[in-house]
């Protein structure tokens, strides 16, 4: 028997004995090396946020101010935007951090987890790198496990550093309670990362996987908020949401660790499901296969605009479904909010002093808070569609092939931006329509449909500003395009915590949404909206000019 024949016959035996997890460690090191800057930015940002939050609540508010904030946590807006309200009777600074900060820490870490998983699971297959990696000594399940291991390690590091950051509070700091708070948030985020891993096996595109994972988070948010409104300190409905598992650990009040085990068990089950699904599909394909197209394309499908639409329609569809259900459910809870507001104003002079004796003022304030999150959710989609649609095509090398055809640079970018900005606008208006529909389903006729429409119109330029800023970065500094997420994070922090931390007005004006008039409260000043619209147009023009002048980058 010749040597080549013997070697050929030996190959199946070696392949059969290869572990499906072989190469997991090397893939973990490769992911950490590639993402070292991105992971470092997330780690530093979260640590700084927790440290500043813990220090500020101790130094800015006295005992009376914190007691007043505890009363706010009993209001519908406080319950929906914070949590079940443990320790409100003795509202110390770190109890306030746990009540008011856990939801937002989970939100930030969940977004980070979803983006990490989709990028290294479905994104690697789309770019073709996964096929090259799998051609080496790498088991078929190693990429799935390596993605979740690196995510878990990153979340663990953030938990420890965040727990150290909580020691900045001079009053009731505790490393153990801080570690419990951060570990609970990290465990919940790990569940959403594992859900994104499952979505990456089902969807054939990274955009579809991202939209599906974000829809899961939106559903979890609705279940948690609705459950906590049914009964303060949580109900059975609350426990169906991974977000509630972090809040139910009760740090700084009555710390208990076992809710984190629910999150770890759920993440483990989702990992096993993702591994099982990965073994049942072809590389580069999803379990839900893309429908085969016709032999000949219709005339309207020819051109960069049709290409951009086909690339972005999956994540737009998932986002529309998730946000539509989220805000419709929120609208149906407004009747309950009105009843709770009437009771709180009647029984609690502190709440009456803050919101006014008229309970409708509290409902109006709650609607204003909801519109903030409606705009932020739509803006987040805009950033994903702009950076993901433009930058991903360029870095993957597909843009060069498109530009080799008779397609100009500005025409291609204009098509991508038109679909991204059109989708952002559609999501904003759909969310407002879903919120209004939910309110009318339970018999609430105020605000009027005209007021809802004017509110959506007022928020449109500010919502588009985030995507336009990302587009300008793509045009002039593509490697820094992710700074658009920093603008979104700054806006969220300033809008949510600026009034609470008594931030200077000059600092709060850095928030794009700070300049939007509150139509629900009777403010219909059009000048800020016009100025924002002009700014959006200028950013888009700058994006087109910059993209035309620079070279195409494939890395």
Q: Round the mean pLDDT to the nearest integer and report it.
A: 82
Number of helices: 23
End-to-end separation: 48 Å
Overall geometry comes to globular
Topology, number of strands: 0
Q: DSSP strand (E) fraction?
A: under 5%
Rg calculated over all Cα atoms: 25 Å
By helix and strand content, what is the structural category? mainly alpha
Task: Please outline the major beta sheet.
Answer: none
Poorly predicted segments? 1-17
Q: Element order, helices and strands?
A: HHHHHHHHHHHHHHHHHHHHHHH
Helical coverage, percent range: over 70%
Written description of the protein model:
This protein has 555 residues and is mostly helical. The protein has a domain at 20-286. It is 73% helix and 0% strand. The chain has helices at 3-17, 24-34, 36-59, 63-72, 76-81, 93-120, 122-127, 129-134, 142-165, 175-202, 206-230, 242-247, 258-278, 304-332, 334-347, 349-355, 359-395, 398-404, 409-441, 449-476, 483-497, 505-508, 527-549. The longest helix is centred in the C-terminal third of the chain and has 37 residues, at 359-395. It is globular. Residues 1-20 are annotated as: Disordered. The chain crosses the membrane at residues 39-61, 101-118, 138-167, 179-198, 210-227, 257-278, 315-334, 365-391, 412-436, 456-476, 483-501, 527-547.
